[in-house]
Design goal:
mainly alpha; 6 helices
Length: 107
Amino acid sequence: AGAVLGSVTTQILGAVLARISSATTPPFICTLVLVFARLLLLDRNRTLDYLASAQMSDGSPALPAVMRRWVDSQHQFSGSYERRVTWLALAALLELDHAAINAITVR
C-alpha cells in the first residue's frame, strides 16, 4: 500500500486542521473529521503521529483539538457509512497504546 501520508496529503491535512478549528456548522465539522477518520483506518500510526506533532492555527496541539471536535460531534454524523467509519476509527485509536492518545484528558 505504501505510505499514505505523502507531502501533498500533509498539506491537505494542514488545511483541514485550519478549517476544523474555525468550523461552526455541524455538517461541515463532520465532513472535516471524516477525513481524519478515514486516514486513521488506512494508516493509524502515521496519521496519529501526524496529529500528535501538528499544531492548530492558535499553536495548541492538534490531536486533542481534533479529538474534542470529533467526540463532541460524533452524534451528529448522518448516514450509516459516516457513523461506521468514525466509530471504527475511534475504536482503532483506543486499541493503540500511543502516548499521545493516553495523554489526552477526558472531560
